Amino acid sequence: MYKFRLILLSVILLASNPVFAETRFEENFNSYSLGTNPNEQNGGVWVVFGSECIDKTVQGIIVNGPAETNNNWLRIDFNSLKGYVPTISFGIAPPSGFQWEPNRDFTNCVLSFDIRSNLTTIKPQVISIEIFAPVKDLSGKPIYEEDGVTQLLSTFRLLDTSLKSIPNYKQGWVTVSCNASSLRDPARYWARPILTQVKWLKIIFYQSVYDIVGKGYVEIDNIKAATN
Fold it and tell me: At 197, phi and psi to the nearest 5?
C-alpha cells in the first residue's frame, strides 16, 4: 500500500510539472531601429536579398506602457514580373560568411515564423526554410571531405513538394512552420543534417514550382526554433 501511494504521488508530480517547449533561437526584430534598412544596421545579423526585392525596412509600432517598447517586424517590398522567373525571388539570410558561434542545436525543433502580406491572392508553394549544417548519411554516420578531417557542410531546405504559401491580405498574420528534421539537400537524397551543429537559418522565396507574379510586400516576424 505504501509503495502504491509513492507511485501515485510520482504520477501526480509529473502531471503537475509538464515538460515545456524550449526556444533554441528567436528573432523578433525589436532590437532594430524603426524605419531603417536592415542591411545597413550596425551589428545586424540579417540581410534581405534577391533580384525581385525592391525595398526592405523595419516596420513596427511603439507600445506605450510602464516602459515604452517596440513591436517590430521586417517588411520586404517586391515586384515579381510575369515571364521573368529567377529561381529565387527574394529572401532573408545572415550576411555572407556568418555562422552562429556556438552552433545551434535544432534537435526535435519546429522552425517557424509569422508572415502577412498585402496580396489579394494566395501565392502557393514558394516559401522555404533553410539551414546550413554538417552532413550525415541515412545511418547517422558523419560525412567528411576528401581530406578525411573536414566535415562536409550543406544547405538543407524544404523540397519543392513541401514549399509553403504566402497568405493573402485577408488572412492577416499566418504562422509558417516545419520540423527541422524534414529539411533535405535536393542534390543528395541520402543526406541528412546534423541538427546539433546548425550554423545559420534562412527564409527563401522560391519560384521553382510557381511564379509569384505580383507587386506588393510581405512582412515577417518571430523567426523561431523551438522544441515540440
Answer: -135, 45
